[in-house]
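Z., the sequence and structure:
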Amino acid sequence: MTFPAIFALIIGLGMIVQWILSFSAEGIPELETEPIRIWFHIVGEIITALVLILSGAGLLAGWPWAAPLFLVASGMLIYTAIVSPGYFAQQGKSIWVLFFSIVLLLTVISIIPIFKGIL
């Protein structure tokens, strides 16, 4: 279950870094135009990132609760990987749509060994 663990850690940390960079570069215009909606979105993504990190660390440590938590984290990530690309598609940034498609595919792939381990 090394791939799911490392995948979860990389994506979770990457999500947090992405938001930190966006805040530091003042690259979130929705804070002015749609502050309530974007804060709900940011909080949802930070929670997703934290659950990914926790489950990834737990998988590496061999903790029994980590596999079910990873499935929850994966569900959260699947949701964000489906919803978030719409923002970039609207702006014509197709590279980000491709990125989220790859994340979605890798998430599905990472779930397979977890299911095999649970069943």
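The radius of gyration is 15 Å. The chain has one domain: 2-118.

Let me know what you think.
H.
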